[in-house]
Design brief:
Helix content: 25-40%
CATH superfamily of one domain: ANL, N-terminal domain
CATH topology of one domain: Rossmann fold
Distance between the termini: 45 Å
CATH architecture of one domain: 3-Layer(aba) Sandwich
Largest sheet: 7 strands, mixed
Length: 643
């Protein structure tokens, strides 16, 4: 196929973890699996064998072995996983205790350093003993209002060592956004930093910390990392003043389905949902993806540009279980120069570079050329947050590295992992995700609940998987849980994305189905229009919504243009290109210039918030946005259909 942009080399396939796993499977089960597609089919047809073999191959440490791998129930969400198994998440991530580097860290203020696995074990030990002295025990909640720094990882590992539950928010969240989350979970301990640096400016968090402390009635202790030397926070213990206790870590052994993390939905249309993920489900799913799909090995360095409020932080940290070096960056990736992050990662000789489609588009639109750097060891680029468009693939292969494996991945906070992602033994087709994840029985459903191939439909998962939430906080009888994922197809997980699955197993994502456009009864994913708009160099960004009119829906496109000026000629060119590349149904009824486009702090475009602003509806969790002021303009817009 002419659109193939990357093929694995024979030696690459032969040396991959997934090839070793196939050999392991074949020898153990006397099977004859020969390629990824056959492995995938086996993984969904023999789920008990598959997930058990993943746990063995990835060397998950159990203190007691499971007596039953999967026990399905009448209800999808009542499936039991690895019954009888006991383990500790932190114990698995701290299995290495040597002088190899566990964490390299960097921030805008030029703070940098490295922590070995031996040092990491020691720092977690000290934090563990201190938390234990403060009465933290199994099941307690510990919250982090922290930047992406090593102390955040240490605090999380110390928390999970005790069998307690970790939850974190990025420090760029507004105070209401933080409280909307933490007030739901009643944390006992709060970890904070007094500030951070962004675009060269020192951001002081002390007033936010004081307000959080006064608002959380269950809080017993606040521990503060002195990042900007403010020394202004009261009623806290500073990180460097944590008393050192004698003793070793006694890893609390918990069940496979014991709570580990509390994550949060974006909350742009209501109170964020508190999504609870399990110890075992998180660990086994992350290791499956890191080891088999990303081919992560001990000698690798892996980086993901993320905050501690995004699930990619949790995903990245699980790389410690492999013994790799994880790289943390805190700050603006384009400061002090637009190529700063590229320069830094090249100097570190990164193996895996994780980012977002928005970052790649920014490089392309601003003529930042990555191949001015060597990227000697770079073999994989991961991108999530929104679908990569064809032009992004062209940019990466023409201007970054021609033999890199570019993997668009898709999943979410809901599953703390991926439904579709890359793998090292299949080719990459421009504009598509390589494959559905092993063990994830994903289909594309039409409105009648029938599986379709090569057509756009709802992303569903028809069989349970270990990393689905164990429950939502404050959700009696799982009512919110069921409404969120099981409201359309009985007992089948509906994720909320539009997807097309092709005969070759590759996947295309078209955006959220809850923001689907429906002009004349034809379903259109917003990503289809964004894919065309990204071709226009003068358009910096865009957002599209559906506007109800006379029992129909009209497409309204808002664009942020470079020169803040939209000529009739440009409007006609946009409409013509959309018509040619998509269909007449895709053509916007109106194209309106705006000053900015709203995004969540995790970098996701929020069509629903724009739609609600236009319609005069409440936007209840505006602190979930990185640029909430952008919505003010939309609130003032009156759409005159007849203009």
């Amino acid at each position: 196929m002419s659109d193939i942009v990357w093929k694995p080399q024979k030696n690459h396939i032969k040396s991959s973890n997934i090839a070793e796993f196939i050999t392991y499977i074949n020898e153990k089960h006397f099977s004859k699996i020969d390629n990824y597609d056959e492995l995938f089919e086996w993984s969904i047809n023999s789920p008990s064998k598959f997930w058990n073999d993943v746990s063995k191959f990835c060397k998950i440490k159990f203190s007691s072995e499971p007596i039953n791998i999967i026990k399905k129930n009448k209800n999808f969400i009542d499936t039991k996983w690895f019954e009888g198994a006991s383990l500790n998440f932190a114990e698995n991530l701290l299995r290495f205790n040597d002088d190899s580097v566990a964490i390299e860290y960097f921030s805008e203020d030029q703070t940098k350093g490295a922590i070995t696995y031996k040092d990491l074990n020691e720092e977690v030990r000290k934090c563990f003993l201190y938390l234990k002295s403060q009465g933290v025990k199994k099941g307690d909640r510990v919250a982090g209002f922290m930047p992406n720094i090593p102390q955040t990882i240490i605090a999380m590992l110390a928390t999970s060592s005790l069998g307690a539950v970790w939850s974190s928010c990025s420090p760029d969240f507004g105070i209401n956004g933080v409280l909307d989350r933490f007030e739901q979970i009643n944390p006992k301990i709060l970890f904070v930093a007094d500030g951070y640096f962004y675009k060269g400016k020192k951001i002081d968090l002390t007033s936010k910390i004081t307000e959080i402390q006064s608002s959380l009635s269950t809080l017993e202790k606040t521990i503060c990392v002195n990042s900007i030397n403010s020394k202004k926070v009261r009623n806290i213990t500073y990180w460097e003043d944590i008393p050192v206790h004698d003793g070793e870590i006694n890893f609390e052994q918990v069940s496979f389905s014991h709570p580990l993390y509390i994550m949060y939905s974006s909350g742009t249309t209501g109170k964020p949902k508190s999504i609870v993920h399990s110890v075992g489900g998180t660990l086994i799913q992350h290791l499956k993806e890191l080891v088999l799909h990303c081919d992560l090995k001990r000698e690798d360095k892996i980086f993901y540009f993320t905050t501690c409020g995004w699930m990619m932080w949790n995903w990245l940290v699980s790389s410690l279980c492999v013994g790799s070096t994880i790289v943390l960056f805190e700050g603006n990736p384009f400061y002090p120069t637009k190529n700063y992050l590229l320069h830094l990662m090249d100097s570190l000789e990164i193996s895996i570079f994780g980012t977002s489609a928005k970052y790649i588009s920014f490089l392309q639109q601003n003529d930042v050329i990555p191949n001015q750097f060597k990227f000697k060891n770079l073999r994989m680029i991961l991108s999530t947050g929104s679908p990569l468009v064809e032009e992004n693939y062209d940019f990466v292969y023409n201007s970054w590295k021609e033999n890199v494996q570019l993997c668009s991945i898709s999943g979410g906070t809901d599953i703390i992992s991926c439904f579709a992602l890359g793998n090292p033994i299949k080719s990459i087709i421009k504009g598509r995700l390589q494959s559905i994840g092993l063990g994830m029985n994903v289909k594309s459903f039409n409105d009648e609940g029938k599986s379709i191939i090569g057509e756009k439909g709802e992303l569903v998962c028809v069989d349970p998987f270990p990393s689905m939430p164990i429950f939502f906080y404050n959700d009696s009888d799982n009512l919110k849980y069921k409404k969120t994922y099981f409201d359309k197809f009985p007992n089948i997980w509906k994720h909320g994305d539009y997807i097309s699955i092709y005969e070759d197993g590759s996947v295309e994502i078209f955006g959220r189905s809850d923001t689907t456009l429906n002009p004349g009864g034809v379903r259109i994913g917003t990503a289809e229009i964004y894919r065309v708009i990204d071709k226009f160099s003068d358009i910096e960004d865009s957002v599209v919504i559906g506007h109800k009119y006379n029992d129909d829906e009209l497409i309204i496109l808002f664009v942020k243009v470079s020169h803040n000026f939209l000529t009739d000629k440009v409007v006609q060119n946009i409409k013509k290109q959309i018509k040619n590349d998509c269909s007449p149904r895709h053509v916007p009824h109106k194209i309106i210039p705006v000053n900015d486009i709203p995004y969540t702090i995790n970098g996701k475009k929020v069509e629903l918030a724009v739609k609600n602003a236009i319609e005069g509806k409440d936007i209840t969790n505006i602190d979930a946005l990185s640029n909430p002021e952008s919505l003010n303009y939309f609130k003032e817009i009156e759409i005159n259909i007849n203009d």
